[in-house]
Every structure is written in C-alpha cells, then in structure tokens.
Amino acid sequence: MNILYKYCDQLGAMKILETLELKLPNILHVNDPLECLPFYESPYDKAAMKACCLRAFKRDNISPPPDWEQKSNERFEKGETQRSIKDALRKNLYALRQKTFLLSVSETAQSTVMWAHYSNEHNGTVIGIDFDNIFPKLGLKMHLVNYSKQRPKLNIWDDFETQEFRAKYFETLSTKSIDWAYEREFRTIFEDRYLIGLEKLGLACLKNFNGEKTWFLRLNPESIREVIFGLYTEDGLKSAIQKLIKRLELQHVKLYQAEESETYTFNLVEITNQ
C-alpha cells in the first residue's frame, strides 16, 4: 500500500468522492512560472552549433548554401544563432507542454502550510489515496519531486528529436525550486497519447471543465483509503462526506479529524462514520 494525500477545498473533495475521478491539470497551469521550465544554456561551441545547423537543413530537406558556414559563424559571434535556436526550442517545448498533464499529491497530511494553501485555510479536507491500487493491473508509479536551488539545464545545441534529449526535458518536469520543499510532493506526468490509451481502457476520460477540455483519471474505489477533516471543516461538509462513503464501494474508507498538538504538526484522530 502506498498512500499519498490530495489536499482539497470543500468542492474538490466532494467531486472526487462523488465521481471517483482525479483532475489532471495541464502543466502550463502550475502556479510557479519557472516550474517545468528548463534553463537554456548555449555553450561557446562552434562544432556543436554547426552540427545543429546541419540537422536543421536535413530536417527541412534543404541543401546547405555554399556560404552557410561563414554566415553561421558570423551570426554565432553576434549571438543571433543562439537566440533563434532558443526561440525555436521554446516553441517546440511549448507545443509539448500543451499535451502534458500532471498529477500532484503529498506524502503528508499533517502540514499546516499545505492545509492553509490547498485546503481552503483548513476548511477543506485531505483524501488519502493508495497509488498502488488506482490501476490494480497496470500500476501507477509516483515520483518524488526533486527540490533544487538550480533550474535543470538543456543544451540548445543538442538534438531535440532524440530520446535522450526528451528524457532530459522530462526530468525538468519533476524538479521544483527548493522554496516548495515543504510540499513533500510526489507527482507523475502524463502525455496526452498515454491518456488516450487509458481512455480506451476506461481508466481516463476527457470532459468539459470550466469551459476547457480537461483530462480526469478514473479511480478504483478501493484506492480511496482515508478522508481527513481540517480544523475548521464545517459540520455540513462532514455530514455530506460521511453520507458519500456509506456507499457500498467506499465503506472501507477511514475518517480522521485533524487536531492541534503541542507542536506545529497535527494529530490525526480516527473517528467513526455515523
């Protein structure tokens, strides 16, 4: 069992328990403008630059003109080649990011800061999900986020078309600023082509959400293991959730109440579903 925690506001918790689905936001919508974005480095390497230009000619099915090398060197010395390659790379990666989606959870349900930021200032809930049991036959691997002071780097002269380059790029999607380390985040990244495959298996669906086409994962009911109420969760929400988990497929779910302790970490006290 691998229980990780989804912090929810009042509406979010109800939606997950009602539909047994998890929303997958596009990575363009993350709340840190530098998250999932690499730093583009451009070493002073004429040989690598020339190889990059030749790949571009080949990709576009163009024969290099006789003076291409001289002009490339001139543009390289002025920084023009670097700027144009970076612009092209940004466009390519933006197109890739438009088709990439994120599932993000935490390894803890006891963070006062997380409750404040993601559970409507302690008025929401946290749902404990067993990620070994979301897709019992396929499995779903979650990756611990790497927190760093340095942004991941991509060399602009490397070949964007190679698997090695794409693997380096996807490493950036699991790296965040060390300022976010309190989240203790686990995440997994989905490309739309993989989600289309899951949709065919009935494990994902594409729906209209707030006017946008949005992907959702369909959860195995057995994967939902816990619901934790915040310090200020209202009785009406508690009653609604208690009613939802009386459904046959959710009767195994345990309820907890977050309570103050002598430290800044909450105690989680199990309560009986009435």
Describe the structure.
32% of the residues lie in helices and 27% in strands. It is an alpha+beta fold. The strands form 5 sheets. Strands 1-5-13-14-15 form a 5-stranded mixed sheet. Strand 11 and strand 12 (212-218) form a beta hairpin. Helix 1 (10-19) packs parallel to helix 8 (235-244) and helix 2 crosses helix 3. It is elongated. It starts with a strand and ends with a strand.
- Major sheet characteristics: 5 strands, mixed
- The total count of helices amounts to 8
Work out the helicity level. 25-40%
Strands side by side in the biggest sheet: 1-5-13-14-15
- Please, what is the average pLDDT? 90
Shape field: elongated
Reconstruct the topology from this structure.
Elements: E1 3-8, H1 10-19, E2 21-24, E3 39-41, H2 46-59, H3 68-78, H4 80-97, E4 100-106, H5 112-118, E5 125-130, E6 143-144, E7 146-148, E8 153-155, H6 163-172, E9 175-177, E10 185-191, H7 192-200, E11 204-209, E12 212-218, E13 224-229, H8 235-244, E14 254-259, E15 267-271
Parallel strand pairs: 3-8, 7-9, 13-14
Antiparallel strand pairs: 1-5, 2-12, 4-10, 5-13, 6-10, 11-12, 14-15
Helix pairs in contact: 1-8, 2-3
Produce a short descriptive summary.
The protein is an alpha+beta fold and 274 residues long. The protein contains eight helices and 15 strands.
